[in-house]
Amino acid sequence: MTIGITPSLTSSYTDCLLICLSVLLQEKMPFCGPKCSLCCTIVSIWGIVQLVLMGVFFYTHSVALAEDLTLKEHYDDLNEFYKDVNASYEQNAYNCWIAAFIYLVTLCVSVHQFWLNNRVSYQV
């Protein structure tokens, strides 16, 4: 007879993810070099800035980005056209912000690797 409550499926995945993350953060040896981590840091910063700004411009319905909208070839109703344009602008804005968040995760990993590379002393 077991005593206690069995964890739900999502909490076991969360626990596994937290354990894997703690093991990776406690890792003493970097998995990419100092130049690679610095390059990934710079690219991540640039990606975050560019994608956040593009998301803001999409959200404010910038006309310069109208070519990037996914619209049908022909519309019979003007209200349907406006509805699709607004939905496409908002979806593109959200996509940019999601990609910026992914770049933020990449930035955190790159900065951590850069810190590990500068902290490690190569002793024989």
Structure in a nutshell:
This protein has about 120 residues and is mostly helical. The chain is built from 3 helices and no strands. The protein has helices at about 10-25, 35-60, 80-120.
Notes on the protein architecture:
The radius of gyration is 22 Å and the shape is elongated. Helix content is 69%, strand content 0%. It is built from 3 helices and no strands. α2 packs antiparallel against α3. By secondary structure, the chain is mostly helical.
Descriptive key words:
124 residues; mainly alpha; 3 helices; 69% helix; disordered N terminus
Topology:
Blueprint: H1 9-26, H2 34-59, H3 78-119
Helix pairs in contact: 2-3
Number of helices: 3
- Using only C-alpha atoms, the radius of gyration works out to 22 Å
The geometry reads as: elongated
Binned, the helix content reads 55-70%
The N- to C-terminal Cα distance equals: 54 Å
Question: Which ranges are low-confidence, i.e. pLDDT below 50, for 5 or more consecutive residues?
Answer: 1-7
Strand content: under 5%
Write down the secondary-structure element order.
Answer: HHH
Q: Look at the structure and give the mean pLDDT.
A: 81
Q: Biggest β-sheet, characterized?
A: none
Total beta strand runs? 0
Structural class assignment = mainly alpha
